[in-house]
Write a structure and sequence with these properties.
By secondary structure, the protein is an alpha/beta fold. The chain has a single domain, classed as Glutaredoxin. It is built from five helices and five strands. The chain has a five-stranded mixed sheet. The model has no long low-confidence stretch (mean pLDDT about 95). This is Thioredoxin.
Length: about 120
């Protein structure tokens, strides 16, 4: 599956309609972003059951601000409407595969329980 361009208009629907979304926050002027792009695209070909999406931080400044993106590229993984991973920096292929594998193994019921527990005073 090729990557999807996320905008403030389609972001909520794409994230809500899909169980597992990998989001690459990037900009065209960013060298590390350009280096990471082929790694991200290759992973999208290997993991056709997942949604791979990109947010151009220059064109979508409101989205970048909403997620407090301070450094690009930043990779975020959203599972069942919960951000389970967010890290700035271009990942090498092996590290990206490792992160995807770890995110796949998460027990989302446990994740939600720990989020609720963290909200308790």
């Amino acid at each position: 599956m090729s990557t999807v361009e996320l905008t403030k208009e389609n972001f909520d629907q794409i994230v809500s309609d899909n169980d597992f979304v990998l989001i690459d926050f990037w900009a065209s002027w960013c060298g590390p972003c350009r280096q990471f792009a082929p790694v991200f695209e290759a992973a999208s070909q290997r993991h056709e059951d997942l949604v791979f999406a990109k947010v151009d931080t220059e064109a979508q400044q409101e989205l970048a601000a909403a997620f407090e993106i301070r450094s690009i590229p930043t990779l975020m993984i959203v599972r069942d409407n919960v951000a389970v991973f967010a890290q700035p920096g271009a990942l090498p292929e092996a590290a990206l595969e490792d992160v995807i594998g770890q995110a796949r193994k998460l027990d989302m019921d446990e994740v939600r329980k720990s989020i609720e527990a963290a909200k308790q005073p």
